[in-house]
Input
Amino acid sequence: MWMEELSNGKYKFFERYRDPYTEKWKRVSVTLESGSSRAKKEAQKHLDEKITEKLQTLTTTDMLFTDVLNDWWELHKKSIKPSTIKTMVYAVDEVKETFAPDVKIKNITAKYTQQYFTDSEENHIKLKKQKSVLSMVFKYALDMELVDSNPVQRVRLPKKVVTFENMEKIEDKFLEQSELKRLLKAMKSYNRGYHVARMAEFMALNGCRVGEAGALKFENYDRENHTITINGTLDPTRKGSEGIKTTPKTLSSIRVVDLTKKEIEIIEEFIELHKIRKSTNPNYKDMGFIFVSANGIPIHKSSIGKLMKNANATLKKPINKPLHPHILRHTLISTLAENNIPLKAITQRVGHKDNGKTTMEIYTHVTKNIKSKVVDVLDKIYK
Output
């Protein structure tokens, strides 16, 4: 350390350190009121702290896991949608708090990581999300040359136990056509539910997600070619009254879908309704969306879900399945599969990847109608 007296009567203390990256000497400084022995000791303390802080930033191979996770998360958030951030943040926070808060990332092994998952009492879904986050963090660390390998790649999650109850739940993911018809009829008859029911009917025929249906605009409708372009979804992180349309879930979600006569009928009905509302309601907010409420705001998914449950309760024999807008999409998949439509055509219509887990589950599941056909065939063969 050395000292220089300044023109204002103060004293500036300097110390050198070597940058491990450039191998060049750099210096830090601190200014104090005095040049006394006591001041020199104080200056040395401040300078040492500054150098330590500088070197900690540079010596990245000694970074704590938590610090690397924070760096990765700040970068990752810039490449994903707000809705995805909202979904991921819980898993990120759980990993940050419980995985290795005070451990240097270079010291984390596959054994350590495996033990974390083996000892965890979280359910299988949460563990899968945590493993996904960890894998991305270590991939980032590998790219930054902070570690030599990704320990998560060698980790196995505790196997999920499949029970009879779990197996039966596949049937609860979609409606039989008889159930769908009964439900839609009840929804149309329910108090002020007609137009929401018509949107639900469109979704059941089209296979679009509820956010995709809400984001459909008149400009997406090709009347001449009888198609509709699905290229976005309503941003779930914003108010419905804002009508913010954002990019869809995946690239495979962007598609042009051929419309059935019933779908065209429903769209044309909303076009006429739009004209009437716009000319008669001074508070009507025209944002160009097709499926809107009386004030021009896109119909919210909660309105569909609530109507489905309320209408179902009025049936003599209510449908004993979890009713939500997404079941309409699954119903189309099961209906097309039952009618021998190829898997590729189904995935293209609904905007799923070819290996979509739910699509495959429903496609391979034998519906009640097919089950009865199998029995009929066997009865005829083995008379």
